[in-house]
Write a structure and sequence with these properties.
- The protein has helices at 8-27, 29-43, 62-70, 85-89, 125-134, 153-157, 170-176, 198-208, 220-234; strands at residues 50-55, 73-80, 95-98, 110-115, 136-147, 181-188, 191-195, 240-244, 246-253.
- The protein is globular and about 55 Å long.
- The mean pLDDT is 94.
- By secondary structure, it is α/β, with parallel strands linked by helices.
- The structure holds S-adenosylmethionine.
- Residues 10, 13, 17, 28, 31, 35, 56-59, 62-63, 79-82, 85, 100-102, 116-118, 121-122, 210 line the site of S-adenosylmethionine.
- S-adenosylmethionine is lined by residues 10, 13, 17, 28, 31, 35, 56-59, 62-63, 79-82, 85, 100-102, 116-118, 121-122, 210.
């Protein structure tokens, strides 16, 4: 089998998602609802069956299942950085290929390229969007969700190193989208989750693997101090909030 070449950041992200894979699906409530929203937005713009679709960063298949359940797609290829994701989507797609989307060999003349909650891991989104556009057939659709700069803003304020490299607000997507694509839908709307303490909050991050860039080592004293500062700055009625800041975008190739 051909080995996949990854840079150190990609290796760390892959390790984090691989570690959280078994628990990801049931704990990624925010991502599940973001994927459903993406399909709802897309549905209003597709009127005929999609011939050839490609999804990158499919994970355990929240978007894959929603898409296949709600829209007519003749053939679908899925991808993820983590090879084991192929097992999760085996019954939902026609083919799966592992590797980083940045350098992956992808088919041309696609009628739909989609991805939920993954583009924030791609540092050069302008280059990615140009590449995706090049692989779309005329009239083909691009359906993406990523996260804006308020993603986990509580953690950012408390000095966490967990941020993904590509948080991008709705108003900044337009500058990254090549002229070959027309933006049809662009929405940003936060989702706030509430936790009983710092431990369950950090457990949630670990179980969903979304903390890929974090190199934090937690001692009991550090956790206690973190919880105190979190509660002081953001706590409400004994609970701690964690903000997801999703951005949804639908575009069409002219
Ligand atoms: C937050 S999960 C989202 C999974 C799924 N799309 C969902 O909506 O639940 C992000 C996924 O992107 C994958 N990923 C991260 N960087 C990637 C890259 N450069 N190329 C392909 N997949 C990547 C991770 O392995 C992970 O499965």
């Amino acid at each position: 089998m051909k080995s996949i070449v990854l840079d150190p950041d990609q290796r760390r992200v892959r390790q984090s998602f691989r570690r959280g894979l078994a628990s990801y699906h049931d704990n990624a409530e925010a991502q599940a609802s973001i994927a459903q929203e993406l399909v709802s937005a897309l549905e209003t713009h597709i009127t005929t069956p999609v011939k050839r679709a490609f999804e990158f960063g499919c994970g355990t298949g929240h978007l894959t299942a929603a898409l296949r359940g709600r829209t007519a797609i003749d053939w679908m290829l899925a991808n993820d950085l983590v090879p084991e994701c192929g097992n999760a989507v085996r019954d939902t797609v026609d083919a799966f290929v592992a590797g980083p989307i940045e350098t992956l060999s992808i088919p041309t003349e696609l009628n739909l390229i989609c991805s939920a909650s993954t583009v924030q891991w791609i540092p050069d989104q302008t280059q990615l969007l140009q590449r995706l556009s090049d692989h779309l057939a005329p009239g083909g659709m691009l359906a993406l969700s990523g996260f804006g700069t308020a993603q986990f803003h509580e953690l950012q304020a408390l000095g966490s190193s967990a941020a993904a490299p590509g948080y991008c607000n709705a108003e900044d997507w337009a500058a990254k989208v090549p002229a070959s694509l027309d933006i049809l839908h662009l929405v940003q709307e936060p989702i706030v989750m509430w936790f009983d303490g710092a431990f369950p909050l950090l457990k949630h991050l670990r179980k969903t693997g979304v903390n890929g860039q974090s190199r934090e080592q937690w001692s009991r004293a550090k956790l206690t101090d973190f919880e105190r500062r979190y509660a002081e700055q953001f706590g409400k009625d004994g609970k701690l909030p964690l903000t997801y800041d999703p951005v949804w975008m639908i575009a069409r190739k002219g």
